[in-house]
Write a structure and sequence with these properties.
Rossmann fold; single chain; 307 residues; 8-stranded mixed sheet; 6 helices
Length: 307
């Protein structure tokens, strides 16, 4: 369910949080700023700058997607795909494909294996195809045939076989990803237990990814903090969930930190309705960036199955 400080739940047009209880995971926005034709309010494909390696720890790009230079295959054309889109624009909470592109260009080579345990609409698989990497995608609610149904805590992947793992997990309960009771998106990072169940589940995921990743391999986690207004509370009264810091601390018990990147969020939906006015009057912050946490599995580390 959405909240004023939610990094992934989509706002309503009147600036109020989305009501809980809805089961729809797919939404259709009234305007798509990344569609491959000219529309006001968003860059056209021909206006997007060509991607190159970002050299600072502050990343931003004017579009959710980059323009792929790869020639589409016949089956992709039959599916209605275009070279302007990676993943699906109708998938709520989709990862910006250019973030994945940056990670793969820096930390992998052609032919290497990339695993995504929360694959969603398959954005990682599309970027892997563009860059000639071997992508393996898993999800409890697969959105296409190329994604294997599996729990991120127990992947059908051989130990020490992945060169890189990219994950963009649920950020608490803001989106209804699946009806599967195993879904980590059903666990509240700011609940009565202080988020204990959510963080325990993510710790199990990290143990499994440590098993899957080869020694010297890279793990990249794309995540955001969150804030939820307290029901009936006054201005500024709510629950802050420092998800990025909490997950960083847990990852550090198994992996060696490489770096931390702040990814600027260009959420044009916030410009519709009264969200900025509500944030000012309610004395809270809208999420302005996501974390990209980069880690390495130590050379010689022993892989063990997550319990």
């Amino acid at each position: 369910m959405g909240s004023f400080g939610d990094s992934r739940g989509e706002p309503r047009g009147d600036g109020k949080p989305r009501k809980p209880g809805g089961k729809k995971r797919v939404f259709f926005a009234p305007r798509d700023p990344d569609a491959p034709r000219s529309r006001p309010g968003g860059p056209r494909p021909q206006d997007r700058p060509k991607l190159g390696i970002f050299t600072t720890t502050l990343w931003e790009y004017p579009s959710q997607h980059y323009t792929s230079e790869r020639v589409l295959e016949p089956e992709e054309i039959a599916e209605g795909r275009t070279r302007f889109m990676q993943g699906s624009r109708h998938y709520e909470g989709a990862t910006p494909s250019w973030v994945i592109w940056q990670v793969l260009k820096r930390y992998t080579r052609e032919g290497q294996v990339v695993v995504d345990p929360f694959c969603g609409s398959g954005t990682t698989l599309d970027v892997c195809k563009d860059l000639r990497r071997k992508g393996l995608g898993f999800d409890l609610n697969p959105q296409r045939e190329a994604i294997v149904k599996a729990d991120a805590r127990k992947l059908p992947v051989a130990a020490s076989s992945a060169d890189l793992v990219f994950l963009d997990p649920p950020y608490s309960t803001h989106i209804e990803y699946s009806d599967d009771p195993r879904c980590i998106g059903k666990l509240d990072a700011g609940g009565d237990d202080g988020g204990a169940a959510y963080y325990a589940a993510m710790d199990t995921v990290f143990a499994e990814l440590h098993r899957v990743l080869r020694p010297g391999g890279t793990l990249a986690l794309y995540v955001s903090d969150s804030w939820r207004k307290r029901k009936g509370g006054g201005p500024g009264e709510g629950t802050f969930m420092p998800i990025g810091f909490e997950l960083f601390a847990r990852l550090r018990t198994r992996f060696t930190p490489i770096d931390l990147v702040a990814v600027v969020r260009h959420n044009q939906k916030l410009d519709r309705g009264n969200w900025h006015k509500a944030a000012e009057e309610g004395n809270f912050f809208l999420r302005g960036f996501n974390y990209l946490l980069l880690f390495r599995k130590a050379a010689g580390a022993v892989a063990g199955r997550a319990k």
